[in-house]
Design brief:
Belongs to the autoinducer-2 exporter (AI-2E) (TC 2.A.86) family. There is one protein chain. The protein is 84% helix and 0% strand. It is built from 13 helices and no strands. About 1% of the residues have low confidence. It folds into 2 domains: 128 residues, no CATH class; 170 residues.
Length: 355
């Protein structure tokens, strides 16, 4: 039986149907987008290990993938979750008991004679800071079931990305609407962003956390190792970072009459820890992934409100992809202009011959 649609109409309707169905799928899975993004990031991180063990040393790929999942769970997920749970109670406490912070700031004002801000602004900033930290750090507040599903979906996706690596890569090459050259540029951009903003940034945060913990221990702050660990995770937050840890510690020491210790923490924090952060970020961003620091900073500001802590990678990646695609667009336009100019020259030459 003949169809009522022309071939062109069929093609338009097919594309429209695909877009509509894809929209429903994305809308339904939007709450679990972090699982797929996390799987992609882990894939880039562990791909060199997988290649070395499976393709060079001929290990069983299922065994290697299972070992990588266990390693990622023990080394990456569990420590982050443990600290998040430890911090959850304190974040909630200080957001609901801002009087403790007010008393601390009042003592600081008495020591310096400078009024920092009004109590209302302090309460507002405390609540906003607690809200930001709660969004950035993974917690079980949103429901244990959602957390388990996200982690399970992430590792499930991660498993099949490696076990069926060839089919996965062929699928990307087949269905991505880019030329092979552009796909390679996008893949290189993804690798550079993960190296610079995951591995590089984790190293920077580790150095800052160790320095913060040592500084607090040297100047007699209780629970220095714990707060050093907190500083490691706080260092991922743009601009604020480790000052969220060592600055309050210094104020507490000053308010308790330990002037030397308080000033010492402030000097080390402002002179050493912050500058180490700036120097290492620039050096590692250039060495581990050639990402401009401005792209990293702007990307983090863009990505964190959208993707949470994964925005540390996804934000710079979006900006990098935008830059790459603009370069591809410019290159294709130049290529097309050259082709048009060549064709025009051939037509003119042919016309001259005929004359």
């Amino acid at each position: 039986m003949a169809t009522i649609y022309t071939p062109k109409q069929q093609r338009v309707l097919l594309i429209t149907s695909l877009i509509i169905i894809a929209g429903f799928i994305i809308a339904g899975l939007r709450g679990y987008a972090s699982a797929f993004l996390g799987a992609g990031i882990l894939y880039v991180i562990f791909k060199p290990w997988f290649t070395a063990l499976v393709h060079k040393h001929h290990w069983n790929r299922t065994l290697v993938t299972s070992l990588l999942i266990v390693f990622a769970l023990v080394v990456i997920v569990m420590p982050f979750l443990t600290l998040s749970l430890m911090l959850a109670g304190r974040i909630q406490y200080y957001s609901q008991h801002s009087d403790d912070i007010l008393n601390l700031i009042k003592k600081g004002e008495e020591l310096t004679g400078i009024q920092i801000t009004s109590p209302q602004n302090i309460r507002s900033m405390t609540q906003q800071g607690a809200s930001f930290a709660s969004r950035l750090l993974p917690s079980l507040a949103g429901g244990a079931l959602d957390f388990i599903v996200i982690i399970g979906l992430m590792f499930f996706t991660f498993y099949f990305m490696f076990v069926q690596q060839e089919a996965f890569q062929k699928g990307l090459q087949k269905y991505l609407p880019f030329k092979r050259e552009t796909q390679e540029e996008l893949g290189e951009s993804l690798k550079n962003n993960v190296n610079a903003n995951v591995l590089g940034q984790a190293l920077v945060c580790l150095v800052q956390g160790i320095l913060t913990g040592l500084t607090l221990w040297i100047f007699g702050v209780p629970d220095a190792p714990f707060w050093g660990t907190v500083a490691f995770f706080m260092a991922f937050i743009p601009v604020l970072g480790t000052p969220l840890v060592w600055a309050p510690a210094a104020l507490i020491q000053l308010s308790q009459g330990n002037t030397g210790q308080g000033i010492g923490i402030l000097v080390v924090g402002a002179v050493v820890i912050i500058n180490i952060d700036n120097l290492l970020r620039i050096a590692l961003a250039k060495r581990m992934g050639d990402i401009h620091p401005l792209v990293t900073l702007a990307g983090i500001v863009l990505g964190v409100p959208i993707f949470g802590i994964l925005g540390l990678v996804m934000g710079p990646l979006l900006l990098s992809y935008f830059i790459v695609l603009m370069q591809v667009f410019e290159r294709e336009n130049r290529k097309q202009e050259k082709e048009v100019a060549v064709e025009k020259a051939k037509v003119i030459e042919q016309a001259a011959k005929e004359v």
